[in-house]
Automatic annotation (TrEMBL):
Residue span, N-acetyltransferase domain: 3-144
Protein name as annotated: ElaA protein
Coiled-coil portions: none
InterPro entries, alphabetized: Acyl_CoA_acyltransferase, GNAT_dom
Organism: Youngiibacter multivorans
Length: 148
């Protein structure tokens, strides 16, 4: 297993292709969400990857600091063949370290809410919302989890 944390300009063409491919596999094909994944934000993000056998097992991107000092982590995924093996937890622990100071916000799929609660995230409100037809909730990690 290998952890990669890269800025956009630190990724070579092959790694960038692999990132875009796994995001399309999970979000567009598997979850049947027709949306513009290439939203213009990737150049400003920090990209966190867990690689196993030279394949992306898990991925997330960290967006730049917001005006309130918070950051968001998004496009969080574990590739299908790597699920149930702990890669998601490893990914999120590394992403939280890489995100640095400030509250961390995520839009969590409702079915994954328990996982994020186990990392110290809390719901910000009781409202669920649909994103690409999938129920989500807003969550926040107020302070650093000292165990990470």
């Amino acid at each position: 297993m290998k952890i990669l944390i890269r800025k956009w300009n630190e990724m070579d063409n092959d790694l960038l292709y692999d990132v875009m491919r796994v995001r399309q596999e999970v979000f567009v094909v598997e979850q049947d969400c027709a949306f513009l994944d290439l939203d213009g934000l990737d150049r400003e993000c920090i990209h966190v990857m867990v690689l196993e056998d030279r394949k992306i097992a898990a991925y997330a991107r960290i967006l730049p600091y917001d005006t309130d000092g918070s950051r968001s982590i998004g496009r969080i995924l574990t590739a299908g063949s790597f699920r149930g093996k702990g890669y998601g937890r490893i990914l999120m622990e590394e992403a939280l370290k890489a995100a640095g100071k400030g509250p961390i916000r995520i839009g969590a799929q409702v079915q994954a809410m328990g996982f994020y609660l186990s990392l110290g995230f809390k719901r910000t409100d009781d409202e669920e919302y649909l994103e690409d037809g999938i129920p989500h909730v807003k969550m926040i990690l107020e302070g650093k989890n000292e165990e990470l």
